[in-house]
Amino acid sequence: MHLSRHFIMSLLLALILFPFIGFASLLVFVGGFLIDVDHYVYYLLRYKKVNPLDAYRFYLSNREGFPQVLHIFHTYEILLVIFILALFSEVVAIIVLGILLHIGMDLLDLLNTFTQRRDTSIRLKIFYQYQRAYSLLGWTLRELEGRQYPTKYGL
Residue 124: how many CB atoms within 10 A of its CB? Predict the structure, then answer.
């Protein structure tokens, strides 16, 4: 999903919620938009370039994905921790609304990418070889074993 779409939709949801929760709606925007900071961190660590515009252009030009990519804030384990924290903190619960919007948009984009492909082999290539890591544990196991996605652990 393009960063601009996450920005617009998160801002729109924050504006819709503003009459109900006031300035706390800005936390929805934070959760929905800033979750993608992990894309920049990945780019920074991998390519040692600090310029965020270069990172943005890099992701736009490589829309199909990247092998062995870890976007840590998009992993099941981190999301589970955030959702558990939301049970005990109203602030985190409001941030989770934005995160849910963001993840939902990512899933719709992924579904759209697969359904637009006519060739099944291309779909499988995208799914298996270029899928970003959705599990921190699975990514760690792959890195330790030096294996490509998927692992024998199915993560």
Answer: 12
Q: Mind listing the pLDDT tens digit of every residue in the chain (155 residues)?
A: 578 889 999 999 999 999 999 999 999 999 998 898 988 888 888 889 898 888 888 877 765 555 567 788 888 899 999 999 999 999 999 999 999 999 989 888 777 766 766 655 555 555 554 456 677 887 787 777 775 544 443 44
Per DSSP, helices labelled H in 3-145 are 3-21, 25-33, 37-47, 52-61, 76-86, 90-115, 120-129, 136-145
- pTM value is 0.77
Coil, strand or helix: which one is 71?
Answer: coil
